[in-house]
Structure formats: C-alpha cells, structure tokens
Amino acid sequence: MKGWLVATALLTAAPVWAQENALRPSETWEDLRESVIGLTEEPPVDPAMLDLDAPIRANDAAIVPIRISQPSDAPALTDLMLVIDANPAPVAAEYTFGEALMPLDFEVRVRVDAYTDLRAIGTLADGGNVMAGRFVKASGGCSAPAGKDMAAVRDSMGEMRWKTAQEDGRTLGTLMIRHPMFSGLQRDQVTLMNIPAHFIDRLEVKQGDEVLFTMEAGISVSEDPVFRFAYEPNGQPISVHAEDTEGNIWDQTFDAAG
C-alpha cells in the first residue's frame, strides 16, 4: 500500500512549476516532426487551448510527472500524442479521449533520457493541431534500474487500484497499475544482463459503455503507471482493460465512487 501512496503523491503533491522552461528550438524536433510524427507544419503553441506542465529539473528522471490541461472554455480534443524528443523512442504515448474528460486535465509519469523538450500535440474536432510543452532537465531515465526485484514484479504485475476525489467542482479519478514497464535498456541488478522490453502497450478505461480514454504506449511511460484525470461521472462502474507486449491481459471493474 505504501508504494501506491508514494506513486500518487508524486502527482498530487507536485510543486507549482514555473513557466520559464518553455520549449526550445531543436534540430531533433525538426527531424522528428515530419518523419516520425507526420506533421508538415509546426503546430501552434497556444496555452488558451492546451498547456503542459513539467518540472524544470526532474528529481528522478525515471519518474517525471507531467500535467496536460486546458482552460474551461477551450475547444475539445479528440486525441493527443505525447512526445519526448531525445528519448530512444520519442513517441511516449498516444491517447484518445472521451467527452467526459473535456476540458482536459490529465496527469501521467514518464521517463526522460536526456535534457529535452517534452511536448503534447493535441488534435481538435476539426482536425487541426495544437501543441504545448516544456524543456526538462533530466537524464538516464530510460535505463534507470527497476524499482523492485523480478520476484516482486511477477507477484504483483497487473494489480490495479482506483480512487476518486472532488477538487474545484470536478471529479478526479486516479488509476494505478502495477507493471515494471521495462524499457529494454535496463539491467537486471543480479545477473547484470539486459532486461527485455516488456510494457503495457494498450489501455482502455471506460465508465459503463462510455470510453474515458485509451492509450497506446511505448517504453517511456514510467514503472507502475499512474493516471490522474478530471472527468464528468455518469454513475456507472469504471472498467479497465490493459494489455502488455508479452500478451498478458488484465480486466478489472471498480465501483464508480472508488
């Protein structure tokens, strides 16, 4: 239980991050934008439509908390791509969002491998794009040692927790999933051999028949993923479906009240 509390605190107790770590000009991004992301033009950066908060300097490069949010009057997003420019696999995750998450207020933890821009690229209902991001000082996150031994990983993999809270008139849901999210760049601290990549690559969270969000992830989402998000509840149970790269599947349903 202590581990769950620590993981949640990393998101909920994060400091108010300064705004001076804005996106920086980047040759890496220029290469990625069209060849990997598929954008022929630079998306506009407009905090009136989308914002991303991240620490200027990460306390732990393997667990960097980020918060992606919109003002209350911002246009709805249909999906979003999370990109960490200097990571070995720059596309950290791709999300789709249901109407119940609008306006967006979504938190997740990621690995950051080098000083880099970290950006969210959202898609609007009309097909247009908007971008937000921060420059984060962190290094070594993708190869940082796993937080627990292999026996503990096997015993707890796939366990989930769900809870809700009220904040500023909105309902906040927190989903926590036990999984090592091995990046393929880490070493077993006993054998000193590289641990093969093994991570949750597909996630779907619903309330009743209504999709709240889906995620397709790569190696950059942190160990024991935690997702915290504001949503409009409909009173139906919360169901979670997760799949990982080794074919494991986990399904769990929670009472809406957490």
UniProtKB/TrEMBL annotation:
Its source organism is Paracoccus onubensis
Domain Ig-like SoxY residue range list: 45-142
Transmembrane region positions? none
Its organism's taxonomic lineage begins at: Bacteria, Pseudomonadati, Pseudomonadota, Alphaproteobacteria, Rhodobacterales
What is the protein's given name?
Quinoprotein dehydrogenase-associated SoxYZ-like carrier
Q: Please give the InterPro entries that the UniProt record associates with this protein.
A: Fuse-rel_SoxYZ, Ig-like_fold, Ig_E-set, SoxY, SoxY_sf, SoxZ_dom
Q: Which keywords fit this entry according to its UniProt record?
A: Signal
Start and end residues of each Sulphur oxidation protein SoxZ domain: 163-254
Keyword Signal carried by entry: yes
Q: What SUPFAM superfamilies is this protein classified in?
A: E set domains (SSF81296)
Pfam families per record = SoxY (PF13501), SoxZ (PF08770)
Secretion signal span: 1-18
